[in-house]
What we know:
Elements: H1 2-13, H2 18-32, H3 40-50, H4 55-64, H5 66-83, H6 93-102, H7 104-146
Amino acid sequence: MKKQFHLLKNSLMQGIDPHHLSLTFLFAVLVGLIPVWGVSSIILTFLAIRFQLNLVLIQFISWLMIPLQFISMYFFFQLGNEWMGEQSKPIDWAMFKAVWKKGFIETLYFIYQMHVNAFLLWLGMSVLAGLLFYPILKWVFSKFKKR
């Protein structure tokens, strides 16, 4: 029982310094907003193991981001399509019905293209946000560490 307690305690205390906490929060929020549903947990598990981050905390924050992920998906799809020059019409039910009338393969290609455009936009924005917010988060967590 004591061995399991120490194992749990070590897993919860991993990555408590300001650098690792900043990366944990930054990765969890940015990857938590990825416009491809269902892949964030896999990506965050890989990042947590690779950078020795707190796996429990990174997954918890990611799960808290799920409502925002669904909300942001619409905007990433819309802006991604406009950014790539695909369409300027809003994404709505009538547009999907019009695409569906073209056929199943065309509908799948349209959905695939929407995801690719949204992912590329998310990737660019997340890199910029990461470069901007990492020093801020590190400074904030270093202030909390001193207390």
